[in-house]
Design goal:
alpha+beta; Chitinase A, domain 3; 3 domains; 4-stranded antiparallel beta sheet; elongated; disordered C terminus
Length: 316
């Protein structure tokens, strides 16, 4: 009887022992699968996060359309061009021109701006944008970078066309008579007595008399006054019938005539010589450029229904 009870106990213990040891392989398998799944999930999550981060930071490639903000200065710190307004306290070069509208300039990375129509020059600011188009390739959306820009003399700008001389002493009559049609063409308005007439910023004019066929404009200035001119400060002196403006031009100064920037290369008693062959007047510019919105070349191509162009080398 004792033997039977012992046998049953041994049998039960054997069964329990067998069940415990049989569970270990299952436990190991369960843990192994769980760890594998956790690792796979972690790797996928990291890869997804990395991809999301990669997609969120766009990098400029040739052909992308990019909105940029920039401000460029001469070596003396004077501002020469900017896409946005600048404080009155900031020193500005004589070639600086206020834009009609503040805001980013849109350019195509790695390419030049389209050629201007025949007889029309690229503006100084467009010449800057041309060179920034190559510089911004590889920059990220929102990134700001400081770069140096320079320009070479343009072969198509022949000296006989782009090196010119202007009179150092300009003369303005005290009184000018013109017909009504001519006055309306010059001023853009119908003549009225007392009306201001802008002919030369250095000398102010005012309508003195109006008849059916003629408008008389009287100009006024004072000897000793100093007035700004595109080529330097002008000193006014008065003669019997006219005002003379003697320009104090300095060799080496930058000047601007419409879209063109040049450099004064010669000054004598009668003439001022200006060279416009170099788009920057030979100056080296320091520009802070900030990248705004980037539109990838493929998106532009898809919107136009054409295949994207190949990468092009940046124009220098």
């Amino acid at each position: 009887m004792q033997n039977k009870v012992q046998m049953r106990r041994n049998k039960g213990l054997s069964a329990k022992t067998h069940n415990v040891f049989d569970g270990k392989p299952l436990l190991r398998a369960f843990l192994s699968v769980s760890v594998s799944l956790w690792l796979m999930f972690s790797l996928c999550s990291c890869a997804g996060l990395s991809a999301a981060r990669s997609e969120s930071v766009r990098i400029i490639r040739p052909g992308d359309a990019v909105d940029i903000h920039f401000i460029c200065r001469l070596q003396n710190g004077e501002v020469v061009a900017t896409t946005d307004s600048v404080a009155e306290s900031q020193p500005k070069s004589s070639v600086f021109s206020v834009r009609l509208k503040d805001g980013p300039m849109s350019i195509t990375a790695g390419t030049s701006l389209p050629d201007s129509p025949a007889g029309k020059e690229l503006a100084f600011e467009e010449e800057i944008a041309n060179r920034l188009a190559g510089v911004i390739v590889g920059m990220k959306e929102g990134e700001t970078r400081t770069v140096k820009l320079s320009a070479e003399d343009q072969p198509e700008r022949r000296s006989e066309d782009y090196v010119t001389s202007v009179a150092r002493v300009r003369e303005r009559a005290k009184e000018v008579r013109m017909n009504t049609g001519d006055y309306k063409f010059r001023s853009g308005q119908y003549p009225e007595v007392g009306q201001t007439f802008h002919f030369d910023p250095a000398v102010s004019g005012r309508v003195e008399n109006v008849t059916q066929d003629e408008v008389i404009v009287r100009f006024s200035a004072h000897t000793g006054d100093i007035v700004p001119t595109p080529f330097g400060p002008g000193h006014i002196r008065e003669t019997e019938k006219a005002y003379q403006i003697e320009i104090e031009a300095r060799r080496g100064d930058l000047v601007r005539s419409g879209p063109l920037v040049g450099r004064i290369t010669g000054v004598d008693d009668r003439y001022i010589t200006i060279d416009y062959r170099n788009p920057f007047g030979g100056a080296i510019l320091t520009c802070d450029v900030n990248v705004g919105k980037i539109t990838e070349a493929k998106q532009i191509s898809d919107s136009k229904g054409t295949s994207p162009k190949g990468d092009g080398a940046a124009d220098k």
